[in-house]
Design goal:
Two copies of one chain form a homodimer.
Chain A lengths: L1 E5 L7 H10 L4 E5 H6 L4 H10 L3 E8 L9 H19 L3 E5 L10 H17 L3 E5 L10 H11 L4 E6 H6 L15 E6 L9 H8 L10 H11 L4 E4 L4 H5 L2 H18 L20 E7 L2 H13 L3 E6 L4 E6 L2 E6 L5 H9 L2 E9 L2 H10 L18 E3 L5 E6 L11 E3 L9 E10 L2 H15 L2 E2 L3 E5 L2 E9 L6 E6 L6 H9 L3 E9 L2 H10 L9 H10 L4 H10 L2 E5 L2 E7 L8 E8 L6 H16 L1
Parallel strand pairs in A: 1-2, 1-8, 2-3, 3-4, 4-5, 5-6, 6-7, 7-8, 9-12, 13-15, 17-21, 22-25
Antiparallel strand pairs in A: 9-13, 10-11, 10-16, 11-12, 14-15, 17-22, 18-20, 19-20, 20-21, 23-24, 24-25
Helix pairs in contact in A: 1-11, 5-6, 9-11, 18-19
Pathway (chains A, B): Aromatic compound metabolism; 3,4-dihydroxybenzoate biosynthesis
Protein name (chains A, B): 3-dehydroshikimate dehydratase
GO molecular function (chains A, B): 3-dehydroshikimate dehydratase activity; metal ion binding
Chain lengths: ~625, ~625
């Protein structure tokens, strides 16, 4: 199977895109009409450039408005095809992708279209060319792969085959079973694209919102399993029109694209070629083992004050490095002030920040193998300064995601520390509930792919939250048992809390760290006694709570007393309490879940209004 | 008629929004549930703040999921309503806006809903409150104003009336004739929103893409004419959910909102109240009379060299100021180097740029009156340095749009110049075809309103153009006889040609000035003889032209020889030739139209690829 990508997926000049595609590991490329038109060089020169980069042109596309035309348009379409064959010859490709007719001149009729394709097949085979026919979701008569397959079948010509595109199939909600009846060798091209669940016209959805497999909501797995079942082993190609990709870094986008193909090809349950290209199946991480902060000694002083107010204790000190461990319940917070470390390098760029997150994993060796197959580069820290040897990959904002071996107790990294036996954990707080990050939308797509392909997380429906400065898009991801959760927040408006935090960090960074408690009121009372400053809620908020939920006046009064927010879903109740922002960038959220499975989206507008007020001070 | 706006239209804190709303001239305001929740102050304090700003709360909204509920939900809904009445009492408003039920618990049936509203009317009237019922486009059973009207009619209660919202009506493409049967005093609230023509689900369209009347594609005029015909004279209110407005300047958005209401209220053919609030109807401008550049002496030297190469002559010199006039055919280019002028102040902020455009108008006095009614502030230049006395309003990027009296020949401003009788105009070029501007999307919405409300321009469908750095959205506007045309370009991607030009100017600026010729080949030959550098097109572009159009090899060769681009539409052919960028920001485009009515969108991708290449050098 040859992994391929259409040039339109990426930004930049034709040359820049070719370089990015080759560098990312692709061997195939789809050339678009517009590539040639905008490139200032001959087709011959383009072919040489592709050869130099080891790229095979899997198809030239699209050839539009061909089938079902009456005279005189029919003859003109064949003339156009011959011109395209000339071009393809010069370009060195033998496959022309024809998409279903959208012209007002087109006539319907399966047999009429089949006859046209038979004749095109005749012409193509004379020139050693082939034709792949695709049903566009917005084709005038043909917009269902079952019809395009029937046309290909009736065209009955060796040079005429099918092109399947996941987007066109899923956007029309066409069933996939018919695929299983198509012989693999009658499929000439497979294009794979994901997309978020949006209800808008097929064309706009397709032209602006497609994304790489694993970044959207379409059931790509099911398609790929059926594709393998047909025996198809031709090009597996990305054709993604996405406004962010078109504006982003070609190199980074191409790398994610390649990764998404490997992931998509192996995410299906049955993968026939269990050969060198197969990748290990791994379990999702169990929970967050530790969160590591990069900070200097002054910032450490302020942060540890806040941690003490939350009930954390200084549990251990690293035997060799300027690193401290603060602990409560199962929450480990590492503070890294060690000079010349990854943390301090990170600190230099981003200031006080979370530079790494450790996740408890099973079978770390397989995870490292999987990471490599997915074109991540596992790192083990600086061998001169880092002794723990825990493998990590780069996650959001180039912070590290450590894969900690969960079978060792105490963990290997814990043995590097000198433990303070006199410390008694308070244990108001017992676990990291989730970590919320602020990032650009481009980085959000990248991060979704990281979390899904490596850590088996699932996406929850995207939520739009209103901030006084504009809208924030929020996407939650979590492991199937909800052991590890991240929420990713992004805003195109520059004055939202999310965007301002991005400015503070000069890039992606942690927005808040949510820690769970079993008793929010006891925790709040403790925090209050410690004089912890918490984010206030408005009087009107509590009046509204009283109208929305069956809460006693006494409960409302208690919530109000401690600035605790409240929500319910069909599974249960939820309590939230935020500290004020630390260094203008992140805060701690204390949560209590009684069955509730969301992240308090209903309270976000209130919280953001309060945080925006805090930032404006 | 009281002009009103919903707080959700604007960005910022509740207080900031109230200030912006009052400042823009509104007397009415709609208060949203979320305003209260996020505002850290009591309802009493809010009421005082509104009073201080002279704002009347025309409605509190929305009250959701009320009608058609079975027990026990029905009783709870009435309980909720009573709580809202309490709140409204404190807030000082008597109108509760109820939108049609979207809850899965809701039951259908016109009579059932009517009974519920009758009961709600009873409760409301006991407290001196009233109810306005609105059919949401995505209501479960009620999504058509004809049904909500039938429910209100059958509810048969003085305290229950109708709320009409243009968005919900147009998005369902409901006919407007039924409106004419509704007595004006049975309508309690009119909400007006425009939107671009998009096909997506009603909810997403409504929540993100609404815009002010005059900024979108909905036939607001028709609605307003019918509204006046009913005799309605209650609140005329804006309820606009728009991502850009939510992120932009509250003050600027509020001002545009107020302007859009005045425009919408008077754009309808029949406006009954021809009183103090009526605004003069004016003719569209005839053509571009002049374009004024702000530049320094060095830049002037380079620009006049380029103008000479295009066949322009130095026709006149200002009698008192450091200003020159260059002319060809009916094109007047003014170069303003006068110290302490508006031009030089503009130059200080934006560098070499177009600081003003003069349009030939009929009845300038009425236009000035109209401008004032639309809350533009007419300016006449600095009385110490400007002698021409031509009125202007601020247009895109705070450049000036002059309204030149077309009845005087020579124009008043021409008499300020000393004419060089020895100059013979070359007249290859005869007229300004259009002016293309780069701006932010927010500014684009603002500019559309300026051009439509003041200069009777019409919008053409928005086009998306692919740039190597991302997508560019392009919106053309022109007067009905096409005498004056502008194209507005905006891009959310930072590396597009459009965005880079924006950077160069530090704001909105001219992208290109298109000048029309009757003989593109003669003009091109002249320019070539003058060694004018033109933007190249690719070899592949001309190969593709040959495949797309019936052009002789000779014509193709001639086009190629001079870098001329070509396009056709159903009305005729179009030729385009671009100079390279001047000062990295604008260029001249030479066009020949043989019936063609577009702006060469088919060639934009090629042109942008070439300009991006030029910028990268």
């Amino acid at each position: 199977m040859i992994y391929s990508i259409a040039t339109v997926c990426l930004s930049g000049t034709f040359r820049e895109r070719i370089e990015a595609i080759a560098k990312a590991g692709f061997r195939g490329i789809e050339i678009f009409e517009s590539d040639l038109i905008t490139h200032n060089g001959s087709v011959k020169e383009i072919r040489r450039m592709l050869d130099d980069h080891g790229l095979e042109v899997v198809t030239y596309q699209p050839f539009r408005d061909f089938e079902g035309l009456p005279a005189p348009y029919r003859q003109k379409a064949f003339d156009r095809a011959e011109r395209k064959f000339d071009l393809m010859e010069a370009l060195g490709t033998d496959l022309l992708m024809v998409c279903s007719n959208t012209s007002p001149h087109a006539l319907g009729g399966i047999q009429r279209a089949a006859d046209d394709f038979h004749e095109l097949g005749e012409r193509a085979s004379k020139r050693n060319m082939r034709i792949a026919y695709e049903a566009l979701a917005w084709g005038k008569y043909v917009y269902d792969y079952r019809d395009s397959w029937e046309i290909v079948r009736r065209a009955n010509h060796d040079a005429v085959g099918l092109c399947l595109d996941t987007f066109h199939i899923f956007s029309r909600q066409t069933e996939l079973d018919t695929m299983l009846n198509i012989p693999g060798d009658r499929i000439f091209l497979v294009q794979v694209a994901d997309a978020p669940s949006l209800s808008m016209d097929h064309l706009s959805w397709s032209r602006h919102y497609r994304c790489f497999p694993g970044q959207g909501d379409l059931p790509i797995d099911h398609f790929v399993a059926n594709m393998h079942a047909t025996g198809y082993d031709g090009p597996f190609s990305l054709e993604i029109f996405n406004d962010q990709f078109r504006a982003g870094s070609a190199e980074k986008t191409a790398r994610d694209g390649y990764r998404s193909l490997v992931f998509a090809n192996h995410a299906a349950e049955k993968t026939p070629d269990e050969d060198a290209t197969s990748i290990p199946v791994v379990s999702p991480p169990r929970d967050i083992e530790f969160i590591e902060f990069a900070l200097n000694d002054t910032e450490k002083k302020s942060l540890t004050k806040l941690l003490s107010q939350l009930g954390f204790s200084h549990a251990a000190t690293h035997k060799k490095k300027h690193v401290e461990l603060w602990r409560q319940g199962n929450i480990n917070l590492v503070m890294n002030m060690e000079p010349d470390s990854f943390a301090q390098n990170f600190h230099q760029h981003h200031g006080v920040s979370v530079c790494a997150v450790g996740m408890t994993c099973d079978n770390v060796k397989d995870m490292v193998e999987r990471a490599k197959k997915l074109e991540f580069t596992p790192v083990y820290g600086n061998p001169n300064t880092d002794t723990h040897g825990i493998p990590a990959i780069y996650g959001p904002g180039e912070s590290l995601l450590y894969m900690v071996d969960g079978s060792e107790k105490p963990a290997h990294w814990e043995r590097e520390f000198q433990w303070h036996s006199d410390v008694e954990a308070q244990a108001f707080l017992n676990k990291v509930d989730h970590i919320a990050l602020s990032m650009s939308y481009e980085e959000m797509l990248h991060s979704v792919l990281v979390f899904r392909s490596m850590f088996s997380m699932r996406t929850m429906p995207t939520v739009n939250v209103t901030d006084p400065g504009g809208l924030i898009r929020s996407q939650a991801l979590q492991t199937p048992d909800r052991g590890v959760s991240f929420t990713l927040n992004s805003s195109q408006a520059s004055r939202t809390v999310s965007s301002r935090i991005l400015d503070q960090y000069a890039g992606t960074g942690v927005n808040h760290i949510a820690l769970s408690t079993k008793d929010i009121f006891a925790t709040a009372a403790f925090m209050d006694a410690q004089q912890t400053t918490t984010l206030p809620a408005t009087v009107n908020y509590y009046d509204d709570l009283a109208a929305r939920f069956d809460l006693s006046d006494e409960t409302i009064a208690k919530l109000k007393r401690f600035n605790i927010l409240y929500d319910e879903d069909e599974n249960g109740s939820f309590y939230q309490l935020y500290t004020t922002l630390f260094a203008g960038r992140f805060c701690f959220e204390i949560v209590q879940r009684n069955g509730y499975t969301g992240f308090g989206a209903a309270n976000s507008q209130m919280r953001l209004a309060m945080q925006a007020g805090e930032m404006a001070k």
